[in-house]
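assembly run, all chains below
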Amino acid sequence: MIVHALPPRALEALVVTGITVLVILSCSSTAAAHGFAGKRFFPATVATEDPFVADELSLPTVSWRRFGASEEGPAVRETDFAVDMSKRITDRLGIGFGATYKVLRPGEGDRQSGFDNLEASVKYQFFTDAGHEAIVSAGVDWDIGGSGTRRVGAEPFSTITPAVFFGKGFGDLSEDMRYWRPLALTGSLGVGFPTRSATRLVDDEGEESVERHPHTLEWNFALEYSIPYLQSFVKDMGIGAPFDRMIPVVEFAMSTPLDRGRGGTTGTINPGVLWAGTYAQVSLEAVIPVNDRSGKGVGWLAQLHFFLDDLFPHSLGRPLVSP
Amino acid sequence: MMSPKPHRCTALEGVRNVLRALAVAACVHAGAAHAHAFLERATPAVGASVHAAPPKVTLRFTQRLEAAFSKVQVLDGQGKRVDKDDGALGADETSLSVSVPALPPGRYVVKWRVLSVDTHVTEGDFAFQVQP
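ok done. output:
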C-alpha cells in the first residue's frame, strides 16, 4: 500500500537513502553464515524458495515470458522486475519481503503496468545436519491481497501459503560415487490458502460470472551441480575462472489446484546456471512452461543477488538478535 | 493515473541508483576482505594422486583467516592423525599449512575448519593419494 501512496520519485529517493544508510551502518561488530550445512554451500535459487534463512537481497530479478490467448484474456508478453529481501531475526528465524513490477504487453490493446501484490514471509530453520549436508525449514508466505494493481492481475484477496523447505547435498555418497557428491537437491512443499473462495465478475455487457479460487499445492524443487564443491572437496579439475564458481541448475516451479473446480497443474522448468561470487551471485535461466496454461514458448529469467552477510558482516548481515 | 512512459523511466532510474549504491558497498567491503573463506587451491591438489607427498600440506583460501581459530589436520586411511600439528598461516594470512612426515603410500584425508577475519566459519575435507 505504501508503494502506491508514494510518488515514484519519492519511492526511489527512499530506497536509495535506505541503501546508503545500510552502507553507513555496516561500518560498525560478528557474523555467521548463509546457506551452509557443513561444507555444503547452497546457492540462492531463482524460481524456487531457498531452504535456509539468510541475509540476502535479490535486486533485480528480471523475467520475460509469453502467454497465449485463453478464455481469461488475449495473448500477452509479460516482463517482471522484482526485488526480494530476506533478513535473519535470529540464527534460525528469518523474514522476507518481495515486490514485483509487471509490464504486460497484450497482442491487442494498450500496455498495462503496475505492481503485483507485495509478499511477506517468515521462515524457521529447525533442522541442520552438517554431516549429511541437510537443512529443513518451515515457513509461511503471505501474498498481501489488494496491495497490487488490479490491471496487472494482482488479486484483491490474500493467499497464505504455509510450507516446508528442504535442502540436501550428496556429499555423503560413497567414494566410488564421489563425482556425484557435488549434486544437491532443494525444494519446498506447501498449500496455498486464498482468503476468498470465489470472485463474482461482471463484464462490460453486464453478464455475471464467478471466478473460483482453489487451494493449491505448491511444489518446487531444484537440482544443482556445484563446480566449486567438485573442485574444493572432490577433485581439483583445474577449471579456471569464471567457470570455477558456476553451479548448473534445473528448477521446477509447479502449482496444482486441489479443489473448487480445479484445473490442471501449471508451472515451469528452468534450466540455467548460477555464478556465486564472493559478495554477489548472478543467475540466468530459461523458463520453459510445462503446458499451454503455463505459458507459450521459452522465456528467460535473470537475477543479481547480494550476500548481505558478506557485504555487511557487522551490521545488516548479522541476525537482529544474537545469542 | 500516471502515463506509462514516465513511470517506466523512473522505475529504471530507481533500480539503477539502488544498484549503484550496492556496487559502492561491494567495493568498499571488497577492500576489507569480509566474506566466507572458500578453499581456492591446495597442495597436494584436491583428489590428487602423487608419487611423494610434499613436506607441507598447504591450503589457499579466498579470504584472510584468523590464526587462532583456523585448523588443519591430515589423517591416514585408518583415521589416525599424521601431521606434525604445527599448522600456521602464511604471510598473506590467506594460506594455512601443516607439516607432514614422509608419508608412506596410501590414501590421506585433509580436514580443515577456518574462521575468516570477519568471523564467518567454513569447513571441509578432501582426499589425496600417495602412490607406491
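The longest strand of chain B covers residues 106-115.

Residues 1-9, 28-33 of chain B have pLDDT under 50 and may be disordered.

not gonna interpret more than that til we talk
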